[in-house]
Amino acid sequence: MKSYLLISDSDETAERLATALGSEAGQLERWSLAEVAADGGALITTPIRGRRPETVILGPDTLEQGTFALAAQIDASWPGVALLLVSGADAATLRAAMRAGIRDLLDPAESAEDWAATIATAHEAARAHQSASEEQAPEASAGPSSQVVVVLSSKGGSGKTTVATNLAVGLAAQAPTVIVDIDLEFGDVANALRLTPDRWLQDVVFGPARNDTMVLKSFVTEHESGLFAICAPERPEDAGGITGEHVAHLVQQLAQEYRHVVIDTPPGLAEHTLAALELASDGVLVCGLDVPSIRGLRKELDILGELGLRPRREHLVLNNVDPRGGLSVADAEKALGRDVDVVIPAHRSLRLATNEGVPLLRSTRRGRIAKALLGLVERVRAGAGGAS
């Protein structure tokens, strides 16, 4: 037996909905806005008649009460529910609705018959998706078959994002690849790739993409190289509420869809970085040829070792190497207690490419810097190297 829930104070909406449901109108439950807002929204976690509703309709009056936050809460509490909104179908509302988990709009200008058809379609789509998710669950639990590559540095200014974006572009030339920017405050992947995303990290982790792989793939931004990207929030305040659990869930989703998942992280060992490292197959350690960077990376490696979070394969990249700086590659290797895998010389061409938003490997494969970056790509692609 189907179950429906209307959240609205609008009697007119309730009457129209009952007409649209016809013989199933007796299965309609109605909550007022005040009921839903009480106790911080605790009512949403309460089953109706012993079970959760299959279809939830948000009335037009919820738009004044924060519809999309409410929709996201419902989507999280009742995954797989068919969620609809009574509203005129303008493009801006539709985009925001989709991000919050709403499957379709019920236009007040349409007939009851149109409403009935929209509700039925959304209901069947939700059931089909739920069935598909249940069938795929055993396969997903076996773990991702792709490489999850976490790019790390202990200090800012090491060129970590430059290395991460070039690595991702190089991998994308050979297999489906996505880069995820989890530097929530100062992530710069969007600028490094000269992208203007329609959707950002917060849209992915809080919206319907969280429970629907097809929606997730439509939320990523495609680069001209064929690389896909999920960029950090455009503004730091948009990152509120994103947790390490969100990052881990997203990485697991992406690992089922892409051969390579490259994760650009903030400097240091933030909660989100540790969550990504728990799923990493490879770690790219980016370090400058200076004392603070080397000491910082040594300390970072020690901490990760104590936590048991050092990736199975590590690739140490010494970036922006200038022999006139007073330190040598051998000095860095001695201090870090392991060999350097890739040495990227200091050169203005790499800085220029980064400033222009065109990864160096997108424009050339010649020269010492490009060859060093390609060497890193091949190491990661082939699974070469090992943790020290």
Can you summarize this structure?
With 388 residues, the chain is an alpha/beta fold.
Explain this structure.
- With 388 residues, this protein is of the alpha/beta class.
- Helix content is 44%, strand content 16%.
- The protein has 2 domains: 4-140, Response regulator (Rossmann fold); 147-382, 3-Layer(aba) Sandwich (Rossmann fold), CATH 3.40.50.300.
- It has helices spanning 11-21, 33-37, 67-77, 91-100, 112-141, 160-172, 189-192, 201-206, 213-219, 244-255, 271-277, 291-307, 329-336, 348-356, 360-363, 368-382, and strands spanning 4-7, 28-31, 55-58, 82-86, 104-106, 147-152, 177-181, 221-222, 228-230, 260-264, 282-288, 313-321, 342-345.
- It has an 8-stranded mixed sheet with strand order 8-9-7-10-6-11-12-13, sandwiched between helices. A 5-stranded parallel sheet has the order 2-1-3-4-5, with helices on both faces.
- Strand 11, helix 12 and strand 12 (313-321) form a beta-alpha-beta unit.
Write the layout of secondary structure elements.
Layout lengths: L3 E4 L3 H11 L6 E4 L1 H5 L17 E4 L8 H11 L4 E5 L4 H10 L3 E3 L5 H30 L5 E6 L7 H13 L4 E5 L7 H4 L8 H6 L6 H7 L1 E2 L5 E3 L13 H12 L4 E5 L6 H7 L4 E7 L2 H17 L5 E9 L7 H8 L5 E4 L2 H9 L3 H4 L4 H15 L6
Parallel strand pairs: 1-2, 1-3, 3-4, 4-5, 6-10, 6-11, 7-9, 7-10, 11-12, 12-13
Antiparallel strand pairs: 8-9
Helix pairs in contact: 1-5, 3-4, 6-16, 10-11
